[in-house]
């Protein structure tokens, strides 16, 4: 990885960290989820990057993938545990980070479990390490707090314009998962819960991405809409909110769902803890080099 790319990643990481920290201050009972997320996305843009995916604001048993829709009325409830998960990219070079804000003192320990698990994971990462050992460090830390790691969520390799780059970084120990490779960036994201330790897909979908540009059976109008999405976000995930310039809210929603049905777009359902347990999450993007590990979003 050349120095120019590393500097781009560092800049994107600083922007993501700034947006994360300023966004966390907005998480209060009664605050509108839409206002928090649009502020975070605006901070990213105003500082010279673009959201790598829609701002996620997942509450309580929602582990991930809730992003507000157009005119979303949802507000943050009293005593909520809120995960703010954001990404910033510059020219496709992506950084990904998350923080948990507990509005109820009794869940501060749960948040601390995932925060410390992230620290312990970063301590063991180095070129060539077995990926399962990262999961071991996360699992051991979260269990030491009396909670469960979420086994079917975890971190991931990040490639240019590819948030999930095909390598999974588990939150539990596992064998045969490969090794950490020098000159790559990885998102490390421990999830802890007082529930069952797994997530399931909910019915609601608020985040989408281009799946294929080569789909037969699209009308000219549908293909034009698809290309306008691709021109703006490439294959990065997006929100319907980002395309209200293309028509009325109802029209945008209809076109997105039509393109999903025809196989041009994919959706990412909200992920919910299987026993409706409360979930916490912390995340950093790290750059692994021959000299060690650099936390890009610190």
Plain-language structure description:
- By secondary structure, this protein is α+β, with helices and mostly antiparallel strands.
- Helices cover 32% and strands 27% of the residues.
- The chain contains six helices and 15 strands.
- The protein has helices at residues 3-24, 33-46, 108-124, 131-144, 220-233, 249-261, and strands at 50-51, 56-59, 62-64, 81-90, 93-102, 148-149, 154-158, 168-170, 184-188, 191-193, 199-210, 265-273, 279-281, 284-289, 292-295.
- The strands form four sheets. A five-stranded antiparallel β-sheet has the order 8-7-9-14-15. Strands 1, 2, 4 and 5 form a four-stranded antiparallel β-sheet that branches.
- A hairpin with a 2-residue loop joins strand 14 (284-289) and strand 15 (292-295).
- The longest helix has 22 residues, at 3-24.
- It is globular and about 55 Å long.
Sum up the structure in keywords.
4-stranded antiparallel beta sheet; single chain; about 300 residues; 6 helices; 5-stranded antiparallel beta sheet; 15 strands; alpha+beta
Main beta sheet, described?
A: 5 strands, antiparallel
User: For the largest beta sheet, what order do the strands appear in spatially?
Assistant: 8-7-9-14-15
Mean pLDDT: 97
Number of strands: 15
Helix fraction? 25-40%
User: What form results from the Cα inertia axes?
Assistant: globular
With helices defined by DSSP (H or I, 4 residues minimum), what is the helix count? 6
**Alpha carbon gyration radius:** 19 Å
What is the ordering of alpha helices and beta strands? HHEEEEEHHEEEEEEHHEEEE
Distance between the termini: 20 Å
Oligomer: single chain
Which structural class fits the helix and strand makeup? Answer: alpha+beta
């Amino acid at each position: 990885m050349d120095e120019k790319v590393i500097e781009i990643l560092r800049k994107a990481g600083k922007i993501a960290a700034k947006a994360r920290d300023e966004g966390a201050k907005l998480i209060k009972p009664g605050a509108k989820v839409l206002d928090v997320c649009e502020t975070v996305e605006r901070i990213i843009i105003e500082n010279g990057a673009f959201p790598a995916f829609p701002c996620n604001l997942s509450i309580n048993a929602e582990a991930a993938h809730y992003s507000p829709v157009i005119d979303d009325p949802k507000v943050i409830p009293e005593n909520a545990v809120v995960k703010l998960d954001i990404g910033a990219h510059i020219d496709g070079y992506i950084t990904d980070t998350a923080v948990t804000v507990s509005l109820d003192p009794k869940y501060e320990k749960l948040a601390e479990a995932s925060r410390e698990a992230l620290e312990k994971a970063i301590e063991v990462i180095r070129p060539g390490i077995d990926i399962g050992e990262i999961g071991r460090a996360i699992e051991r830390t979260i269990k030491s707090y009396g909670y469960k790691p979420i086994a079917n969520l975890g971190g991931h390799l990040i490639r240019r314009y590819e948030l999930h780059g095909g390598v999974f970084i588990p939150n539990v120990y596992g064998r045969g998962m490969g090794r950490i490779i020098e000159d790559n960036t990885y998102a490390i994201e421990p999830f802890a819960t007082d529930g069952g330790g797994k997530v399931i897909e909910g019915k609601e979908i608020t985040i989408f991405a281009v799946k294929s540009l080569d789909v037969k059976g699209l009308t000219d109008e549908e293909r034009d809409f698809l290309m306008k999405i691709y021109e703006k976000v490439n294959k990065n995930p997006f929100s319907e909110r980002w395309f209200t310039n293309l028509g009325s809210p109802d029209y945008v929603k209809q076109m997105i769902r039509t393109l999903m049905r025809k196989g041009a777009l994919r959706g990412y359902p909200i992920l919910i803890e299987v026993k409706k347990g409360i979930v916490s999450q912390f995340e950093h993007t790290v750059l692994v080099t021959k000299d060690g590990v650099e936390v890009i979003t610190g």
